[in-house]
Amino acid sequence: MKISVIGCGYLGAVHASSLAKLGHDVVGIDIDQAKIDLLSSAQAPFYEPGLPELLSETLTAGTLTFTTDMSLARGASVHFIAVGTPQQEDSNAVDLRAVESAFEGIVAHLSPGDVVVGKSTVPVGTAERLAEGIEAVGAHLAWNPEFLREGYAVKDTISPDRLVYGVRPGDDHSVAMLDKVYARALAHDTPRVITDFATSELVKVAANAFLATKISFINAMAEVAEVTGADVTQLADAIGYDARIGRRFLNAGLGFGGGCLPKDIRGFMARASELGAGDALNFLGEVDAINLRRRERMVDLCREVLGGTITGAKIAVLGLAFKPDSDDVRDSPALDVAARLAELGGHVRATDPQAIETSRRLRPELDYVATVEEAARDADVVLVLTEWREYRDINPVVLKSVVSVRAILDGRNCLNPVQWREAGWTYRALGRP
Ligand code: UGA
Q: Residue 11 and residue 149: Cα distance in Å, rounded?
């Protein structure tokens, strides 16, 4: 099929190249010339395992092209809208300007029978509002939310765990077109839910709200564990054996960040309030608050280990990305804690395998170094704030010769306390004695 993908950020770039890999003829369109230049030369503008190889393969095969010229969407029969929907600067609500301008831009290039497919995460009611302009030219609208995780984006796109199509009741044409796009996943029995616009929009934010709630639930248990001497990691193991609960997303620590969970729960609350259903989602305010309290607790723990004062202490920060295998520092708990410690007068030396450049753009005032050894040299305390494999594998015996004081704070419950204590370190973590 000939397909256009409008918006070549995280979602769009991965979606466009994955569809090209599946055998479709894809054009990726974005207003950012620099991004298009990078993508056209098979370079990903962000760190995502497998994406550069996929770009290179599909660009060479000629099944993928990138452009800033919206008119090149003409002739495609399916047009995916994959632009960003960030949080507004002065409120919790979603900034829909990019979605609106993508819809305005595509409409002039549509032919009757084309299907415009929204992939961006939008407040419920957006598709209904945008459908009119699309339908006026004889095209169809569908909403097809995306559930990819950063770090696994290519795999999640090529082999999704479910497909959701939000369509007008009886719009068999859009369903048939989407089935052709996703023929390979459907041949592997991927579950498919066909529903209306509103449900499809809600599925996405409900899924992220559930995941955020699950993380904050275990972090709330960590708060209680901290005042009782209990161990939240054992608690998570024990409740996780109950198949109805499940162990995944019960890792207590610094909490969630990134470009999705935080802004999605806030946007969901804002939209529910507009619709008069704000009370139904009041609990998400608490989910957000529990999450942010973990960052304060980490700063407090650091102060405690340093004997009451952060000012002047040499602090090594290992990890800046919001999670491992990503260079994304949007709303990153790790970068936030590093910045707070520096603001409190700590001499922070921070490192990350991928996220130094992205961190520097947001927090130019911090001192970044390339390696664990440089960060930890003469440190009074070492903080692990993102659970990269190389930090989980650090040998405490080797690291102790580098630091000034053997104190390790495990912000992600990713280290083995026994091993660190046996090597003579003071080991402290969130939610553990
Ligand atoms: C999330 C969802 O998992 C995806 O399904 C969704 O498609 C995506 O948002 C989106 O809306 O685009 P992502 O932001 O890539 O994906 O990251 P997650 O793997 O969900 O992790 C989010 C945050 O939660 C990270 O900061 C991670 O460290 C934290 N987390 C995760 C925990 O603190 N504990 C856990 O047990 C799991």
A: 10
Q: 191, exposed or middle or buried, with CB in 10 Å at 0-12, 13-18, 19+?
A: exposed
| CA 231–ligand 1 middle distance (angstroms) | 23
Q: Give the model's pLDDT for residue 197.
A: 98
Q: Please tell me the residue having the least CA distance from ligand 1 atom 18.
A: 149
Per-residue model confidence (pLDDT) at position 301: 98
Task: Looking at the structure, tell me whether residues 263 and 172 fall in a common domain.
Answer: no
Domain count, the chain: 2
Give the pLDDT confidence of 258-271 residue by residue, as tens digits.
999 999 999 999 99
What does the alpha-carbon distance between residue 210 and residue 201 come to, in Å, rounded to a whole number? 15
Q: Which residues are catalytic?
A: 260
Domain membership of residue 331 as a residue range: 211-429
Strands (E), 7-162: 25-29, 64-67, 78-81, 115-118, 140-143
**Measured distance CA(183)–CA(39) in Å, rounded:** 26
Atom 35 in ligand 1: residue holding the nearest Cα:
249
pLDDT at 124: 98
Q: Whose CA is nearest to atom 30 of ligand 1?
A: 256
Tell me whether residue 204 is in a domain: no
Mutate to test the pocket of ligand 1, among 290, 323, 326, 329 (most ligand atoms within 8 A of CB): 323
